[in-house]
Design a protein that fits this description.
19 strands; 4-stranded antiparallel beta sheet; 6 helices; Immunoglobulin-like; flat; 360 residues; Elongation Factor Tu (Ef-tu), domain 3; 7-stranded antiparallel beta sheet; mainly beta
Length: 360
C-alpha cells in the first residue's frame, strides 16, 4: 500500500461572529486543484456545531457555510499513522472466529473480533522478521495464571508459536453515521497489542469489544417509565412500546445491533450505571423489544447486575462493532488510522488489560 492513499477526516465547529455555535448548518468542503475546485463533501453540523467529513487525502480545502467561504486549510494525512492492510487469512485462524450475527443471537458479542494487518503481504517475515518488536517467548507456558499474557493466550487460543508485540496501538475507524449518510464519525480502540499467531505470520491487530473506547454518544434519551423486565448475569431485556412514544421515536431510529449503551438505573432511589451491547431488536408492530448483553470492557468492572423491576431513567447510545466492519470498498488505509500508544507502552498498568476478563 502506498503512503499517499492515507486519508483522514476534516472536522471542526461552526460558529457565528459572536462565537455561538451554528446547529444544523450546511458545511460544504471544496478541494482546490490546479484546474479549479470541486465539492469533496457536504455535511451538516450537529447540535454542538460540530462537523466531521469523510476521510480526505492530502490537499488544500476550502470550507463553506451557507455559500460563504469561512476557511482554507492545508490538510495533511500522510505520516500521521502506521500503514495498515486487510488481514490475510493465512495470518490468523479464521475457523475460530464466529460470525457477528451468530454471536449476537447467542448473546456473546463480547467474543466477536476482527483483524487489520500492519505488515504488508510482501514482507517476508521468515527471512527478515517482523517490523515491530515481539515478546520473544511462548506465552502459553507462563505458569502464573494471573499473568496478563497468560490471560491473553486464553482469549485468542494461541498456538505454540504465538507472540504479541511490545508496542501497543491505537486504532481509529471512520464510518458513516447511517448506511445512507455521507457524514462520518469515529470508532476507536486504544492500547491494543499486535499479534503474531504463527511462526511465519505477519502481525495483525485485533479489534474487539474489550479494547473499544466509546467516543461521544450519538444519542442521549431520558426514559419515563421503562422497567427492566428480564435480567440475568449478562442479559438484559427492556420493552419500548407505544404507551411511551417519546421513547420509541427517540431511540429506535438510532439504535442498532452492536451498539454500546449506558443505562442509568434507578435502584430504590439509588442511581447506578449499567453498560451493555445491543444484541437484538424485535418488533411486533406495536412495540419494540431491545435485548442487551452485558459489556465486558477492559476499561472498568461493572458495578453490579440489574434486577427485574428497576426503572431505567436514561439511555446513552454509542457506536460499537457491526457485522460489515471489514466489508469496505476503499483501501483499508483510508478508513483506519493506526498509531503507536506510547502511554500504554511506558506505563506499568496496561490500558488493554485481560486480568479481569471473563473467558467464555
Amino acid at each position: 500500500m502506498i503512503s499517499n492513499l492515507r486519508s483522514k477526516p476534516i472536522e471542526g465547529h461552526i460558529t457565528d461572529s459572536a462565537g455561538n455555535v451554528l446547529r444544523n448548518a450546511q458545511v460544504v468542503i471544496k478541494q482546490e486543484i490546479p484546474s479549479g475546485s470541486f465539492v469533496a463533501d457536504s455535511i451538516r453540523s450537529d447540535d454542538d456545531g460540530y462537523f466531521i467529513s469523510k476521510p480526505m487525502p492530502n490537499g488544500v480545502y476550502d470550507i463553506y457555510e451557507s455559500g460563504i467561504r469561512i476557511s482554507r486549510i492545508i490538510h495533511q494525512a500522510v505520516g500521521t499513522g502506521i500503514p495498515c492492510f486487510q488481514a490475510d487469512q493465512e495470518n490468523f485462524d479464521i475457523t475460530s472466529i464466529d460470525s457477528f450475527t451468530d454471536l449476537a443471537n447467542a448473546y456473546n458479542l463480547n467474543s466477536y473480533k476482527t483483524f487489520i494487518q500492519i505488515e504488508p503481504s510482501s514482507n517476508d517475515v521468515s527471512q527478515y522478521g517482523n517490523i515491530f518488536p515481539i515478546y520473544d517467548r511462548n506465552i502459553l507456558t507462563i505458569p502464573d495464571t494471573n499473568n496478563e499474557l497468560f490471560k491473553l493466550s486464553e482469549f485468542f487460543d494461541f498456538n505454540i508459536n504465538s507472540r504479541i508485540t511490545t508496542t501497543r496501538f491505537d486504532i481509529e475507524y471512520f464510518t458513516p453515521i447511517t448506511a445512507i449518510s455521507s457524514e462520518y464519525k469515529r470508532i476507536r480502540w486504544a492500547g491494543v497489542p499486535g499479534i503474531k499467531f504463527y511462526k511465519d505470520s505477519r502481525i495483525v491487530i485485533p479489534l474487539d469489544y474489550y479494547s473499544i473506547v466509546p467516543s461521544m454518544p450519538k444519542l442521549t434519551v431520558a426514559f419515563n417509565d421503562n422497567i427492566i423486565t428480564t435480567s440475568g448475569e449478562s442479559i438484559l431485556l427492556i420493552t419500548i412500546s407505544e404507551t411511551n412514544p417519546d421513547d420509541l421515536d427517540g431511540v429506535i431510529p438510532y439504535i442498532s445491533v452492536g451498539n454500546i449503551v449506558r443505562l442509568l438505573i434507578n435502584d430504590s432511589g439509588t442511581q447506578k450505571y449499567w453498560y451493555g451491547i445491543v444484541a437484538k431488536i424485535i418488533s411486533d408492530g406495536t412495540k419494540y423489544q431491545i435485548e442487551f448483553e452485558q459489556w465486558r470492557s477492559s476499561r472498568f468492572e461493572m458495578e453490579e447486575d440489574c434486577t427485574v423491576g428497576q426503572f431505567i431513567n436514561e439511555i446513552r447510545i454509542y457506536d460499537g462493532m457491526f457485522s460489515s466492519i471489514m466489508a469496505i470498498q476503499e483501501e483499508v488505509n483510508q478508513r483506519f488510522c493506526v498509531t503507536e500508544n506510547n502511554y500504554a507502552q511506558d506505563n506499568s498498568e496496561e490500558l488493554y488489560s485481560y486480568i479481569h476478563m471473563l473467558v467464555i
